[in-house]
Task: inverse folding
């Protein structure tokens, strides 16, 4: 069985994180992933602190295993949620879409393991200096907020730049992706889009069907003009937004166009006004299955790939 230092650090069975997908990764999904041996992560997204507290409570009712909370630092409720995770003493906090520097000391003092998502070597070095427990190097293949570098390029550079454990994210859906991440120097992986197909994932059935039917060119990136690029499925809404983005719509109107779009996709399955976040690996997700089965499957696939890697060396 593949086991790495991140397992010992966090007390998990498999070196697999579930991505913090806003309005998607709730207490039920996080608990299912943690019960399956990985690290389940509740997404705070743009939700207020009370919602996050409710989801933490729900997860703890369903599992005694470690759980995490992902804080999107762009959120207007970021300060509020930062306080909630401290009060609730969650096991792990991951962060995205910003710099968590002002919160790290307080979280560490509470005993929380702080594992920021980084999209550059510079951010990885900063998080190392500030005492993060590990970092998640996420490439632009991922869904949601994305950076410029691909996973293949970013992960080895981050591994070279820090002595912290590195979790690879972006474009990982099966054992081959897990094995590739380990070969690049990572000691674990984070998967988001793959868990959209989990039975415990409560997204609208239309959202789940779009993932299961996705093709290789199913995603696109919008939001670059406003400085916050996002990868999502090619839907009527995504095409409309892209047209508006490069058609001269004022920034405030563009912001308003995107407001609430993800929530509409998650809760209503609305293709006309909803943003269906997804990574490029959506085309590799073929069936709905329990979260625990997903974790076990990808790890069992990865082991023989890693063991057979030396066959190419004569």
Result:
């Amino acid at each position: 069985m593949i086991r790495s230092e991140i397992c010992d650090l966090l007390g998990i069975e498999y070196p697999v994180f579930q991505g913090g997908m806003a309005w998607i990764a709730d207490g039920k999904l996080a608990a299912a992933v943690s019960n399956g041996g990985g690290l389940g992560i509740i997404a705070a997204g743009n939700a207020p602190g009370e919602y996050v507290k409710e989801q933490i409570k729900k997860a703890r009712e369903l599992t005694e295993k470690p759980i995490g909370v992902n804080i999107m630092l762009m959120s207007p409720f970021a300060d509020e949620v930062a306080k909630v995770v401290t009060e609730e003493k969650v096991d792990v906090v991951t962060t995205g879409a910003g710099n968590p520097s002002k919160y790290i000391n307080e979280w560490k003092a509470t005993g929380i393991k702080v594992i920021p998502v980084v999209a550059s070597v510079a951010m990885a070095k900063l998080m190392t200096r500030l005492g993060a427990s590990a970092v998640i190097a996420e490439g632009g293949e991922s869904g949601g907020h994305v950076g410029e570098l691909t996973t293949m390029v970013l992960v080895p550079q981050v591994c070279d730049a820090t002595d912290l454990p590195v979790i690879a994210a972006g474009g990982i859906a099966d054992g081959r992706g897990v094995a590739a991440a380990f070969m690049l120097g990572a000691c674990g992986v984070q998967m988001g889009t793959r868990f959209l197909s989990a039975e415990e994932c409560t997204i609208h059935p239309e959202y789940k069907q779009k993932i299961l039917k996705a093709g290789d060119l199913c995603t696109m990136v919008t939001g670059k003009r406003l400085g916050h690029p996002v990868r999502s499925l090619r839907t009527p809404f995504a095409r409309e937004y892209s047209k508006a983005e490069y058609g001269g719509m004022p920034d405030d109107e563009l912001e308003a166009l995107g407001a609430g779009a993800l929530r509409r996709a998650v809760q209503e399955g609305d293709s006309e006004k909803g943003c269906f976040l997804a990574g490029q690996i959506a085309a590799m997700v073929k069936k709905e299955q329990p979260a625990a089965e997903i974790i076990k499957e990808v790890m069992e696939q990865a082991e023989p790939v890693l063991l057979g890697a030396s066959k190419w060396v004569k």
